[in-house]
Amino acid sequence: MRDLFDTPLLPGLATADDLVTMAEEGELIAAIDALDLQPFRFQGWEGKRLTHSFGLHYDFDGGALAVTDPMPAWLVRIRDRAERFAGLPPGTLRQALLIRYDPGAGIGWHRDRPHFEHVVGVSLGAHAEMRFRRRTGDGFARRTLPLPARGVYHLHGEARHGWEHSIAPMTATRWSITLRSLSERGRQAIGLA
């Protein structure tokens, strides 16, 4: 999203509409719903959103990154398209986190784990808004990014490391495909560095 003068909402944030077609959106939603989706777990707490990982899995209870099942062909096609959108070399996005947000599910303020670097997200289903905040002297600077169905965003640099983001609880079902590259810390965690 850019303003009237073509300035990005945040440095390090790029967006585009229609990374996938309407027909592909339906196929992706069906493929995600066919997986063994599990409630998100964080240090013994169970969240309302349902998730499944491919490529790499980050265990929020134990704080560890591990290799898991490879991405299926239907997901590799989307990953490849997302890498082209983000200007990343093929195979850079090593982790895919698939999330289903039913009504009432959202995600609180956070930055993605330091094991990851680039974050590329594809939105499916209901419209959502990604909220950004950064602490200032006596409060927070805030920005809001609309996440339309079939759109894509790329977080890197300042948007990735200098701002937290969240999604308010949904009123209708939304699915997302979040693709991430490894940071040097992540490469070390799985023995690639």
Description:
The chain is an alpha+beta fold and 193 residues long. The chain has one domain (13-189): Sandwich (Jelly Rolls), CATH 2.60.120.590. 19% of the residues lie in helices and 43% in strands. It contains four helices and 13 strands. The protein has helices at 22-33, 73-86, 157-161, 184-189; strands at residues 13-16, 38-42, 45-54, 56-59, 64-67, 93-101, 107-110, 116-125, 128-135, 140-147, 152-155, 164-167, 174-182. The strands form three sheets. Strands 1-11-8-13-6-3-2 form a seven-stranded antiparallel beta sheet. A four-stranded antiparallel beta sheet has the order 7-12-9-10. It has a two-stranded antiparallel sheet with strand order 4-5. The N and C termini lie far apart (35 Å). The mean pLDDT is 91.
User: What is the N-to-C order of secondary-structure elements (H for helix, E for strand)?
Assistant: EHEEEEHEEEEEEHEEH
**Which consecutive residue ranges, at least 5 long each, have pLDDT under 50?**
none
Strand runs, count = 13
Assigned CATH class? Mainly Beta
Question: Architecture, CATH level 2?
Answer: Sandwich
Main sheet record = 7 strands, antiparallel
Oligomer: single chain
Major sheet strand order = 1-11-8-13-6-3-2
Stated plainly, the CATH topology is called Jelly Rolls
- Would you tell me the structural class of the helices and strands? alpha+beta
**Mean pLDDT across all residues, rounded?**
91
CATH superfamily: Alpha-ketoglutarate-dependent dioxygenase AlkB-like
How many discrete structural domains? 1
Shape: globular
Number of helices: 4
Report how far apart the termini are. Answer: 35 Å
* Share of helix, binned: 10-25%
Radius of gyration: 16 Å
Give the percentage of residues in beta strands.
35-45%
